[in-house]
Amino acid sequence: xxxxxxxxxxxxxxxxxxxxxxxxxxxxxxxxxxxxxxxxxxxxxxxxxxxxxxxxxxxxxxxxxxxxxxxxxxxxxxxxxxxxxxxxxxxxxxxxxxxxxxxxxxxxxxxxxxxxxxxxxxxxxxxxxxxxxxxxxxxxxxxxxxxxxxxxxxxxxxxxxxxxxxxxxxxxxxxxxxxxxxxxxxxxxxxxxxxxxxxxxxxxxxxxxxxxxxxxxxxxxxxxxxxxxxxxxxxxxxxxxxxxxxxxxxxxxxxxxxxxxxxxxxxxxxxxxxxxxxxxxxxxxxxxxxxxxxxxxxxxxxxxxxxxxxxxxxxxxxxxxxxxxxxxxxxxxxxxxxxxxxxxxxxxxxxxxxxxxxxxxxxxxxxxxxxxxxxxxxxxxxxxxxxxxxxxxxxxxxxxxxxxxxxxxxxxxxxxxxxxxxxxxxxxxxxxxxxxxxxxxxxxxxxxxxxxxxxxxxxxxxxxxxxxxxxxxxxxxxxxxxxxxxxxxxxxxxxxxxxxxxxxxxxxxxxxxxxxxxxxxxxxxxxxxxxxxxxxxxxxxxxxxxxxxxxxxxxxxxxxxxxxxxxxxxxxxxxxxxxxxxxxxxxxxxxxxxxxxxxxxxxxxxxxxxxxxxxxxxxxxxxxxxxxxxxxxxxxxxxxxxxxxxxxxxxxxxxxxxxxxxxxxxxxxxxxxxxxxxxxxxxxxxxxxxxxxx
Length: 694
Ligand code: ADP
Ligand code: MG
Description:
Layout: H1 2-5, H2 19-28, H3 34-38, E1 44-47, E2 62-76, E3 82-89, E4 94-100, H4 104-108, E5 114-124, E6 127-131, E7 134-138, E8 147-150, H5 159-173, H6 183-189, H7 194-202, H8 207-239, H9 249-256, H10 265-279, E9 285-290, H11 296-309, E10 313-318, H12 321-334, E11 342-345, H13 351-363, E12 368-372, E13 385-391, H14 398-407, E14 415-420, H15 426-432, E15 437-441, E16 451-456, H16 461-473, E17 477-481, H17 497-508, E18 514-517, H18 523-534, E19 540-543, E20 556-561, H19 569-577, E21 586-591, H20 597-608, H21 612-623, H22 625-629, H23 648-664, H24 674-684
Parallel strand pairs: 4-6, 9-14, 9-15, 10-12, 10-13, 11-12, 13-14, 16-21, 17-19, 17-20, 18-19, 20-21
Antiparallel strand pairs: 1-8, 2-3, 2-5, 3-4, 5-6, 5-7
Helix pairs in contact: 7-8, 8-23, 8-24, 9-11, 10-11, 15-23, 20-21
The protein binds adenosine-5'-diphosphate and magnesium ion (MG).
């Protein structure tokens, strides 16, 4: 490979001054090659431009100082800790540098040497000191750079060493980095060349210059990602073909009359988008976002029925059997008087039932199939698949689409509609679902009951249970949510569903029926419990966050969340959505110790608003994108430089540029774009279909 020749892919081990031992440490930081090393982003910069005289350091300052080693001393503290004290001095005064349990440091220095170091100044027994200071230079004049990079480190790798290694790599290799961004794009944003940028990233003359370098690299990675999306989007809108599904006035009327209510403004707008897609002859590729209860299922039903009215088949896939059954139940209600031939395809079907359904689908005798996401993995063949609705799937990638395409014969691709009830901040939508068109339903159907949310300290949980008892007496049902399935030694005091259920059933709520559901139960068992709860045979459901997505029991109006700070905001919002579904007002109690500032701030957000999009933005800001999606499959791309909470404008800019580029030159053939194309194939080659474009 050409890249191999230029040396950037060389194992860092072979860089001068690294060797096998340090290479192993670097690997822990994700640095394997010289390229990784060059692109290892500093966390920040240390201002070493202002070395202050020792006499002027003050307790509480962060300071950079320089002094000669006067004395080195090893001690054992009363608690048995090994301590190294190094006294340094300059012409104005003295300072103690102190290390705990790190005696090797004593061997690194000799009296008479000059140390430049940085750290926070503290006071001990009336004397000023720095504990575990950062050594910047030894026995040399102060470094020539005014700012030094601060890297995330791993044990046994010192900041000074990593700086030296990066410096060596910059000297020898930075000129080899490919210039991915064409000149006109660099000029548009005032970005430096890649060579200059990588130097300024590590050793900027000023932090603002370092930030500009970071932005260049962030833009670059975002641009690549957005080009991958743009190509996918282009393919769907220009190259691929899909059945033309016409929605005449008559069809529209026949579908709408199945719903016992007027659609909301937001539902109508989403349907307008969908209808335009369906009639276009190109595959719809759309995400419908809307808060819990905003009526997405109704919108999806519209799309399914439009296909069926045009004599195409339609499929609805949900992430779990519980949800598949629930959708089935909903559709059964809407379709009670219709002639739509339909089947629920789930694991618990007997082999012969299953065989019959599969044959019906293949023969085109079944119009509508509801099932889990497993539908696409199985041996299901459709005769004329027109629309596929995917509920709550955060990642529905090219590979899954290819699978579906295979299920539909001919060269027509079905229309895709993805629904998610997790309101997702725009920047995340653009980075995870960037190839999809988006419709957002912002309003809720009228007449929704409000949910009152209250943060309660653990010692008041009995009062909350008393309230629950009261509501149960009035005929309502309640959820009690625990973070854990099973008690854990590592997480003392965190509620676990398996232990709490008997406790509530046998002690707290002896007079009521308490069920249990969690993610580690078998599917049938889960389903049986959910069914009992839905039917009113259980009053309280002790659960983990498995009830987070989509479960619909309108009579359940009270929710108690234990150890509420252990849940993400978006997750709490989802959970709370479970109790806003009926004709009675909801009550949500978040039980939490008033802990850290951030935790308190988060709970305050959730208690003060029910706007899912606002909550999502806050969640992203407070916890970052990885945590935002939690453990769910999300397809979040790896971004080293871009920050999804802060780089909103950059993301928008990169997206605009990417779509314009692909519009003009879908295969990126222009010589200016060669490097961009190479990088793109390297990074997303398995995910995009560059060849099928244009
Ligand atoms: P989502 O899937 O977005 O959570 P659903 O489609 O399941 O929302 O709708 C939630 C509830 O609201 C359902 O009981 C549904 O019948 C009802 N609903 C949906 N749209 C409307 C509407 N326009 N007017 C009144 N009720 C509606
Ligand atoms: Mg729903």
